[in-house]
Design brief:
- The structure is a single chain.
- This protein has 565 residues and is α/β, with parallel strands linked by helices.
- Among the domains are: 35 residues, no CATH class; 77 residues, Golgi alpha-mannosidase II (Immunoglobulin-like).
- It is built from 16 helices and 21 strands.
- It has an eight-stranded parallel sheet with strand order 11-10-9-5-2-1-13-12. Strands 14-15-16-21-18 form a five-stranded antiparallel sheet.
- The mean pLDDT is 95.
- The protein binds 1-deoxynojirimycin.
């Protein structure tokens, strides 16, 4: 039973989240790698920017084979990022600024260097043996994997160890063995870890591939399908319907248990956001059942990765919003995410066009849902095509073994990146040699993205027409206008939602915000605009968009109008 008021809209539904990849944000120690003190030194920037919640990709102890998504100690901090004291200071400093902090929690797997796995693999009767998923190979010799299960990345997810003549299961990369949540000790340890961080004041967790926690207890084969490529909305891939390895029914019970751990904590309410690639129907199931008009009993939020590749056109965006409203109406709420540390940056999918990026930001910050902004998105940082053969990213390293013609074929249209380094380049703070990420004599852990001399915080701060100032204006307005973070959403005129124009309104109590987005390269004029309308925001600064009850929109212009209900 939730202890929180049903009458108030919870803070995590109204917030905007800023996602930091700690390794790439700000180096303070002089090794070309971002760190916690570096992040602390930028909190005033983030506060002024207008963000309310900060999510950090993992900072726990790790051999960094997958840059923190391979944890070797859940209650300690990787030394290159700082110490536990730095972490406590970070939490305090964030709270002093009345912001929230969210950690990234990898529950599904650990690093193979984690002492638990080291013990587990050492003998069949080690007390930690059952902390992971071990199984005999197929008869008669046992030298074939136990069944046909493929990992998320393709290829068998089973890996053999001679020492004990058994196979362990890894949903992701071979050095990330899956924990066994059918063992109550594992569950207890991880739930206590959650409490450990909540006691330190963490406001929530982003849960890494939370749809892969449980697998079939009988180890049955996954059925065949013709689908090869994984997609954002469907878990079938590599010719397998992953019914026994992804979205197992026990996961839906597990997330409710996780939720009850968070609900042990009093105000401020803590929240969970799940990383899950699935249809909106499945995502809703992860959020649990509605328990009252503001809350459910599962995950508070899930990412809807459907937005990652939605074309910047009225019709598909209209359809997406309709889909969200059909399945995720109150007490559920969607999220709006366009870029992250695994994906090609959105602006590069938009041809690195700043006007399109402003329009996209207007959608992200005005449609109903919780926006997640990836670091650097606010200054227009682009994806940087980096060589596969020197990839830091373990997935990039895998692709580096592919024949060159295949790599060229896959990446030919420029809309696919095989190396996640490409979207993880250092944050662009100023026009100096290393963009203010680290000092000029150092080599940053990844090269800077192109365009950093112009696209950076200090250059954009003084330019009223910059992408950074567009985000700031939107964030300011969103904070000031409850209709934008808590209002209902409806389309102004279905027939207007053509390929080029999308308009919707957000209403909260007496307040009405109308959003008009021109997705075309032609100007548009809209008549019969309500006389009381006021122009509250425009992607084009000083635009004279509203005259004589007519709205004039330049190509790719977005505006927010305010009127009284
Ligand atoms: C999803 C994370 O977003 C990704 O970066 C990571 O490599 C995998 N999960 C494995 O933890």
């Amino acid at each position: 039973m939730s202890i929180f008021s049903v009458h108030e809209i919870p803070w995590w539904k109204k917030t905007t989240v800023y996602h930091i990849y700690p390794r790439s944000y700000k180096d303070s120690s002089g090794n070309g790698i971002g760190d916690i003190p570096g992040i602390i030194s930028k909190l005033d920037y983030l506060k002024d920017f207008g963000i309310e919640t900060i999510w950090l990709s993992p900072i726990f102890s790790s051999p960094q084979a997958d840059h923190g998504y391979d944890v070797s100690g859940y209650r300690s901090i990787a030394p290159e990022y700082g110490s536990i004291r730095d972490c406590e200071l970070l939490i305090r400093e964030i709270h002093t600024r009345e912001m929230y902090i969210v950690f990234d929690l990898v529950l599904n797997h650990t690093s193979d260097q984690h002492p638990w796995f080291q013990e587990s693999q050492s003998s069949r009767d080690n007390p930690k043996r059952d902390w992971y998923i071990w199984h005999d190979g197929q008869k008669p010799m046992g030298k074939k994997p136990p069944n046909n299960w493929k990992s998320m990345l393709g290829g068998s997810g089973w890996h053999y160890r001679d020492l004990t003549d058994q196979w362990y299961w890894a949903q992701f990369l071979p050095f990330q063995p899956d924990l066994n949540y059918r063992n109550p000790d594992v569950k207890k340890e991880m739930f206590d870890t959650i409490r450990f961080w909540l006691d330190k004041g963490i406001d929530g967790f982003r849960l890494d591939i939370i749809n892969t926690i449980f697998e079939d207890e009988q180890f049955r084969n996954n059925p065949f399908t013709w689908k090869f490529f994984p997609s954002d909305a469907d878990d079938s891939s590599f010719f397998q319907k992953k019914i026994h390895t992804i979205n197992h029914p026990d996961n839906f019970i597990f997330v409710k248990e996780l939720r009850s751990v968070l609900d042990e904590y009093d105000a401020p309410e803590r929240f969970l956001v799940g990383e899950i690639s699935a249809s909106v129907e499945v995502l809703k199931k992860y959020c649990g059942d509605a328990i009252n008009k503001t809350r459910t009993n599962g995950l508070h939020l899930t990412f809807q990765f459907q937005s990652l590749n939605v074309p910047l056109m009225a019709k598909p965006i209209h359809e997406l919003i309709c889909l969200y409203e059909q399945h995720l109406s109150e007490p559920y709420i969607p999220t709006w995410v366009f870029s992250n540390h695994d994906q090609m940056r959105r602006i590069s999918k938009l041809g690195n066009d700043l006007n399109k990026a402003k329009l996209n930001a207007t959608l992200q910050l005005t449609a109903r849902g919780v926006p997640f902004i990836y670091y650097g998105e606010e200054v227009g940082m682009s994806n940087h095509r980096l060589p596969l053969k020197t990839a830091e990213d373990p997935i990039g390293q895998r692709f580096s073994r592919l024949p060159k013609f295949l790599v060229n074929l896959l990446t030919r249209k420029g809309s696919i990146s095989l190396n996640r380094d490409d979207c993880r380049t250092p944050m662009q703070w100023d026009p100096s040699l290393n963009a203010g990420f680290c000092s000029e004599e150092l080599e940053p852990w990844l090269p800077l993205s192109l365009g950093h001399h112009e696209l950076n915080v200090s250059s954009e701060e003084d330019n009223p027409d910059s992408l950074l100032n567009c985000y700031k204006a939107l964030l300011r307005l969103r904070k000031k206008m409850p209709a934008l973070h808590s209002g209902s959403i409806s389309f102004l005129n279905q027939s207007l939602s053509t390929q080029s124009l999308l308009s919707y309104q957000r209403i909260h109590d007496e307040q009405v915000a109308q959003i008009w987005l021109n997705f075309s390269k032609k100007p548009l004029e809209i008549g019969r605009i309500e006389v009381s309308s006021k122009l509250l925001f425009s992607t084009i600064v000083d635009a004279d968009s509203l005259k004589d009850s007519k709205l004039h929109l330049e190509p790719y212009q977005g505006v927010v109008l305010g009127l009284s209900a």
